[in-house]
Amino acid sequence: MRCTWWKWILYAGSIAAFVASASFTVYCAWKVYAYHQPGEGKTEKAEENAYHFVLVPEELDNDYWRLVEQGAKAAAKELGVSLEYVGPRQANIDEHIHILEKAAASKVDGIMTQGLTEKEFTPVINHIVEKNIPVVTIDTDAPTSKRTAYIGTDNYYAGFIAGRALAEDMHGKANVAIITGSLTASHQQLRVQGFKDAVKKEKGIRIVAIEESHITRVQAAEKAYNILKKHPEVNAFYGTSALDAIGIAKVVEQFHREKGTYIIGFDTLPETIRYLQKGTIHATVVQEPYEMGYRAVKMMVDIMKGNGVPSVTNTETKVIRKQDLPLRPSRNYEVKHD
Length: 338
Fold this sequence. Notes:
Order of helices and strands: HEHEHEHEEHEHEHEHEHEHEE
Strand content: 15-25%
Helix content: 40-55%
Radius of gyration: 27 Å
CATH topology of the largest domain: Rossmann fold
Number of domains: 2
CATH class of the largest domain: Alpha Beta
Shape: elongated
Structural class: alpha/beta
CATH superfamily of the largest domain: Response regulator
Number of helices: 10
Largest sheet: 6 strands, parallel
Distance between the termini: 77 Å
């Protein structure tokens, strides 16, 4: 009987311990669940982190996008909002879209990104907006999507002024090869189309080839090399993304054709500026990536506050040559590496 009594005590103690442990586990699980629920505790957010925005670039370590990031972070600090900069390390549409979907699933307050291709990006942007998360497109618009606003270059106009600059500098006579970052990205397509329209009435200008660099120096150089081998008559190049003219310039120097080959590119990366100073690159189209990032964050804050914002805001675009250096203000053109 005594043995049975002790067994009952041990049995009851085990049950009590199990119930206590299970209750504690359920309590902790609930606390974790409640803590991670989007929207919970928003009123308890620190004042300096009133909103949480995500900036998703085409390519994370691209110097052009670093300038966009610098502008966005400056505005975020000024306005007291939290900003994440996250994207593919190298341009990859599938990865880009996956990151956008993850950002939307985490219930951020707003997303800033590109509308690279209508087919892939418009449905994703629409899905995000339907979750009551505003989207501002930067650099490349998705005009048929439900995005709230676009801020950036008028890419058709940028291509057009590049074409006019080449026509003027070459006195209306040139055999031109175009190297574009992407044959499918809408902003690259617009830059090519604008260029074509700008030179189509010039009887002495002929577009010999159009090749794709996939936004890399290496492939831009490879395509330039192949073009010069196949079409030695080419005496002018147009590069539509930030790295194209750099790759082209390396090959032109390799062929010792600096004096007889005209190059116009895009943006003001340090290498581009050095080639411009040397005279290997003759002109480049200047954008305002810092301003895009800075003004996009300010625009997003206005959207969150219910203030109206313009559907399209085009930042300044112009063609510069060696005599226009140095560029000011420097914040638009000088990348600060961590």
